[in-house]
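User: Could you go from structure to sequence for me? I need the amino acid at each position, not a summary. Structure tokens:
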């Protein structure tokens, strides 16, 4: 408040002088410092609110039980009159090219 008589004393105001360019620069730096601190506090408060709203939703998810994978028996293929075991399960064996190729790419 410019009407406060204590602010007229040089040791109270320090180098903050609204009458000189250097004093105005110091006042501007102080305003910027305080505005940065207020912005940091507001951002921290917003992050706190968002996190506190997200935590209950994260607790709604359940962790699924691990499924037991049964070993698949090797598929047998016949070549001539002898049967031999294929190293891959039937679903991993190669399919005809027409199943792998999309319709647009085949044209």
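Assistant: Here is the amino acid at each position, in order:
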């Amino acid at each position: 408040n410019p009407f406060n008589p204590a602010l007229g004393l040089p040791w109270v105001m320090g180098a903050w002088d609204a009458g000189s360019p250097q004093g105005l620069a110091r006042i501007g730096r102080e305003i910027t410092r305080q505005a940065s601190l207020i912005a940091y506090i507001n951002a921290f408060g917003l992050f706190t609110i968002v996190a506190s709203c997200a935590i209950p939703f994260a607790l709604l998810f359940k962790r699924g039980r691990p499924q037991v994978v049964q070993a698949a028996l090797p598929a047998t293929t016949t070549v001539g009159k002898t049967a031999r075991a294929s190293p891959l399960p039937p679903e991993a064996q190669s399919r005809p090219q027409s199943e792998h190729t999309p319709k647009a790419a085949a044209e």
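One structural detail worth keeping in mind: The radius of gyration is 38 Å.
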